[in-house]
Amino acid sequence: MPLLEVKSLVSGYKKVPILRGISIRVEEREILAVVGSNGAGKTTFLKTLSGQLHAFSGEILFAGVPIQGLEPHRIVEQGVVQVPEGRQLFNYLTVRQNLQMGSYIREARNHRRETLEVVFDLFPVLAERQDQWAGTLSGGEQQMLAIARGLMARPKLLMMDEPSWGLAPILVRRLFENICRINQRGCAILLVEQHVQQALSIAHRGYVLERGMVVMEGEGKDLLKDERLKESYLGI
């Protein structure tokens, strides 16, 4: 049974559908990349999974249990956590306070100390800056904090929306290394990303969205060899 299974999902804003019958699955402990051009529906997809948008129709099953229609905090309690595009940190709280905000559900609060140790092991710079205001961190450090805050909720599935946004190339490479390290600790990753080549290079599998529909799917390494994808997204 997949960790996450999405069946014939239709969703959008008000009465306008953006997603048009998407079916996607995420297996336990895998990195799944969802890529596509701007306007393909990637962010709408994540917002629907996290409960910020309600689906018009279709099914969303997490560990076999329907989660569509649940409020966002209930979805987090199930183990599905989103790291939003643009980080959305609490700039006038410290690094440590931002991390504590991520562990607001009961199960996460009960394990806050040990999860902090895991987070500081993954991102040592956050331990060094834990008393610093989040808004004064560099762009790369802020992205680390956004991911770490998501990890504080102890997710089974961590969804990331364009985590490389605004980062220099050297920081993008470091980011993808950290995503792999998180996955190696047993957390499944659903990665929505503009850097198609880097995302598919670390992904076990991937889906390509166009105009709210899945147009390609397969193992990450196989998609990178596909001539249509090379021409459309890699400029090759």
| Cα end-to-end separation | 37 Å
Content-based structural category: alpha/beta
Question: Based on CA inertia axes, which overall geometry fits?
Answer: globular
For the biggest β-sheet, the strand order reads: 6-7-8-3-9-10
SSE order, as H and E? EEEHEEHEHHHHHEHEHEEHH
Strands, total number: 10
Q: Spans with pLDDT under 50 lasting ≥5 residues? A: none
Determine Rg (CA atoms, Å): 17 Å
What proportion strand? Answer: 25-35%
Helix content: 25-40%
DSSP summary: helix tally: 11
**What about the largest sheet?**
6 strands, mixed
Mean pLDDT over all positions = 92
Structure description:
- This protein has helices spanning 42-49, 72-78, 95-102, 106-110, 112-122, 124-128, 139-151, 169-184, 196-202, 220-225, 227-234, and strands at residues 4-13, 16-26, 31-36, 57-62, 65-66, 80-83, 157-161, 188-192, 205-210, 213-219.
- The protein has 236 residues and is α/β, with parallel strands linked by helices.
- The mean pLDDT is 92.
- Helix content is 40%, strand content 26%.
- The strands form two sheets. Strands 6-7-8-3-9-10 form a six-stranded mixed sheet, sandwiched between helices. It has a four-stranded antiparallel sheet with strand order 2-1-4-5, with helices on one face.
Secondary-structure blueprint of this entry?
Layout: E1 4-13, E2 16-26, E3 31-36, H1 42-49, E4 57-62, E5 65-66, H2 72-78, E6 80-83, H3 95-102, H4 106-110, H5 112-122, H6 124-128, H7 139-151, E7 157-161, H8 169-184, E8 188-192, H9 196-202, E9 205-210, E10 213-219, H10 220-225, H11 227-234
Parallel strand pairs: 3-8, 3-9, 6-7, 7-8
Antiparallel strand pairs: 1-2, 1-4, 4-5, 9-10
Helix pairs in contact: 3-7
